[in-house]
Amino acid sequence: MTSTPLDIPGWTHVYSGKVRDLYRPTPASTDSPAPEGTMLVVASDRVSAFDYVLSPGIPGKGELLTTLSLWWFDTLDDVPNHLHASHALLGTGTDEARALVPPEVAGRAMLVRALDMFPIECVVRGYITGTGWLEYQESGTVCGIPLPSGLSNGDRLPEPLFTPAFKAELGDHDENITFERVVEIVGADDADALRSMSLSIYARAAAISESHGVILADTKFEFGRDAASGEIVLADEVLTSDSSRYWDARAWHDGGSPTERMASFDKQIVRDWLAANWDKTGTPPELPDEIVERTAARYRELLERITTTA
């Protein structure tokens, strides 16, 4: 699950992102009795950073991401999402749902409804770090939004920021855009809805995470429209280690340096190693075994901490 998409009987591969592969039922196939409009989203073990897919992948990552996504979809069950109606959210659902997931991808696949996806990455930042910190040092802004002076790397922002991006094609860089540009792309009503839903979901998820001793520093959401109902629906992955920055809350409160404060549960380990060992030209270097193992361990630890009853 780290390179080319699988050939799955009864399903036709239609798209691959940096991590996920998307399939639709093969017409007239007896191998896939999935209803019309059903899609299969398969999370691979691929890992990406700086818009590149790296090698090797992180063993077991696809199952960890899928399990965490399903846990969040279940926890936020009042937020409309793209899961198939009979999907087994926590692995204990109906025989029908289990039967529709091909055995080749069991544990790493979600059955979902086909949606008309918005071409917007709905990023929410609750803390300043990463590219936001670099911009703030230069101009006192994050994605063009002015912020108070005196902030340090890793500080909590006065309020969460909605900092959208335009989704790029595979291999290209996502483009940070203003809210006004979102309005131009999707219209004022949908832009308002995307911003409102993103900020609301982030606030709830951040509070839940903190109750488990984890800080949700930032995240990105994707949404689509249900063609039948017109409803805006939460889609793709949600609040995973790949789509979010998670930090240990105690380390953030007690740490004396940015490295100590931002003890990461996500792929920041990969980003940091790559930044120190690659000039972002040509092909990225192979990840060392030690980096792969540490990253896999942090993904597992986050899943255990988030999904364990506080």
From TrEMBL:
A GO MF label: phosphoribosylaminoimidazolesuccinocarboxamide synthase activity
Enzyme class: ligase
CDD domains: SAICAR_synt_Sc
EC number: 6.3.2.6
SUPFAM superfamilies the record matches: SAICAR synthase-like
Superkingdom: Bacteria
GO CC term (a single one): cytoplasm
Listed Pfam families: SAICAR_synt
Keywords: ATP-binding, Ligase, Nucleotide-binding, Purine biosynthesis
Reactions performed catalytically: 5-amino-1-(5-phospho-D-ribosyl)imidazole-4-carboxylate + L-aspartate + ATP = (2S)-2-[5-amino-1-(5-phospho-beta-D-ribosyl)imidazole-4-carboxamido]succinate + ADP + phosphate + 2 H(+)
Alphabetized HAMAP family for the sequence: SAICAR_synth
PANTHER family according to UniProt: PHOSPHORIBOSYLAMINOIMIDAZOLE-SUCCINOCARBOXAMIDE SYNTHASE
Protein name, per record: Phosphoribosylaminoimidazole-succinocarboxamide synthase
Organism from which the protein derives: Labedella gwakjiensis
